[in-house]
Amino acid sequence: MKKAFSELSHYMDVTWHVIKMAMMTIIEYPSNIAGWLISNPLQFIMGFAIIKFVVESFGEINGWNYGQLAFLYGISVISHALSMIFFVQGWFMGYYVIYGDFDRYLTRPLGVLYQFFFTNINVFGVTDLIPGILVFIYGCAKCEIKITLLFCIQVIVMLIGATLIRGGLYIFLGSTSFYTRSVVDFGQYTQEIMDKTTMYPISMYPESMQFILTYLIPIGWVSFYPVSSLLGISSGICDGLIVPFVTLLIGLVMMLISGAFFTRGLKKYESAGN
Amino acid sequence: MIKVENLSKDYLLKKKEPGLSGALKGLIKTEYKTIHAVDNLFFELGEGEIVGFIGPNGAGKSTTIKMMSGILTPTSGSVYIGGEDITKHRKEVVKNIGVVFGQRSQLNWDLRLGESFELLKHIYRIDRADYDNTLDVMDSILGIKELVDKPVRQMSLGQRVKGDLVAAMLHSPKVLFLDEPTIGLDVSSKFALRTFIKEINKIKKTTIILTTHDLGDIQELCERLIIINHGVMMEDGNLSQIIDRIAPYKTLVVEYYDEEAPEHERCELVEHTDNIAKYKFMKKETTAAEIIADLSKQKNIKDVSIEEAGIDDIIKIAYGS
């Protein structure tokens, strides 16, 4: 117990130091800040504007009205931003595998996955967070949601779960590079799929697709199912207060599975010749 | 300090057939060939030893070092560092090792060198007093403090390697692995690096394992050499022992006043051009002085010199076999 606590405080200490270093790096290149501050929010605000346009033209999407869609969109962008802060490095795992960049992590007395994600923590991801929160608040207002303690807990639990599902997926896809010994550059494609399946209700897709997104690749649980339950829309699979906690559970299971897949892959790691 | 037992690493290599038809065939049915990159190594290293791993490119040196430092998982065998197996308790054992791998840096490119050191201070939980103390020692050997405030991206290769060496030594590891540390360095940087290796070995009793292609490194640093080729250990011993074993001869070069060169019964006339004759003799059987004395009785000698088998001959012979 004491050992576990000391271990945890060690990881927290390193994490805090790494975050400070990441901020120093940002300050080192101030011109990047301006670029990100302009382009990132713009991207999401335009995405939201498209939804607004579609809803205003057709009335609603698959029974979801404008406020509900804003709520869903906001949650999707927030969990996307969180996964970008902590797990974006997973997109580039293939390069680390092929170019032998895991060497450095393996010779240090900390977990390899922890170092891989946290020594590359992307503090810039915060710029994605802001438009997400704005749209989410807007959606809450439109849906006239009463902010209770339970609601706050549900939202936080759901966001943690959603971030873990996304992160787990990145780890899993990235780890395939250990087995194929080639760079799997999946970032762009996954992003496209994620956007289309978490920003809109998946009930609008064919049933086979819904089945895949619910049971095989559990992206449906990132935003669609928990948001449905929070808004009182029946998803037909799982309703009630419990759904955000199911999201968290699925996130943890995803992490465990992909963590094991990574660890097994790491044993096959071949480094790179110098 | 280090015990390597039965250490092997196999790679599976896809067999490729030529041409498009071969490539298509490979897609449907893949045949694999097993490559023994490292084959059944056994050796032990004591505290404070400096050991050079040498061998041609692709001989398995780097693979061996990477298995010893926890980077690669061996196909079979164990590596004990301070009594614990690194393949089983990586996180524990790596606290006792430091690693510098040639061209690859562990320093943060964007920030001043000191920030990389600070991060390592947190990762290895080094307390402030030890940290300051180690930096003082490093400063006295390498003059690292004048580099601490410089951003790593603005450093020369020599300065960066210095930074990497200090980074690897901050937590005072018992074992330091150096994979081709002097590659690409100029003469004065090489000198500084060798001095550093000798000094920390003396002050901290650090066991040092290095791979190198640089004959100067071997001559200056390595009390013990392990020669590896095709993943197999060819030689293990100190430099002069290995020279005696592989090349137990010297060559005597004699310059005469004319083109005639006499033979001698205890050595072999291996080369004879114009006025110069080369005699090869076994160190055990005779001495150069004896041969010179005998030869000078038969002819007038203008000049003599002696060629010894050097490290490069050793390497040529060892690699060739």
UniProtKB/TrEMBL annotation, chain A:
Annotated keywords: Membrane, Transmembrane, Transmembrane helix
Task: Report which residue ranges the record marks as coiled coil.
Answer: none
Transmembrane regions: 33-55, 67-92, 112-137, 149-173, 212-233, 240-262
**Classification via InterPro entries:** ABC-2_transporter-like
Q: What is this protein called?
A: ABC-2 type transport system permease protein
From TrEMBL, chain B:
The answer to keyword Zinc applying to this record is: no
Transmembrane segments annotated in the record for this chain: none
- Which SUPFAM superfamilies does the entry link to? P-loop containing nucleoside triphosphate hydrolases
Q: Name one GO molecular function term.
A: ATP hydrolysis activity
ABC transporter domain: from which residue to which, for each copy?
2-255
Query: Per UniProt, which keywords does this protein have?
Result: ATP-binding, Nucleotide-binding, Transport
This one is known as ABC-2 type transport system ATP-binding protein
- Species this protein is from: Butyrivibrio hungatei
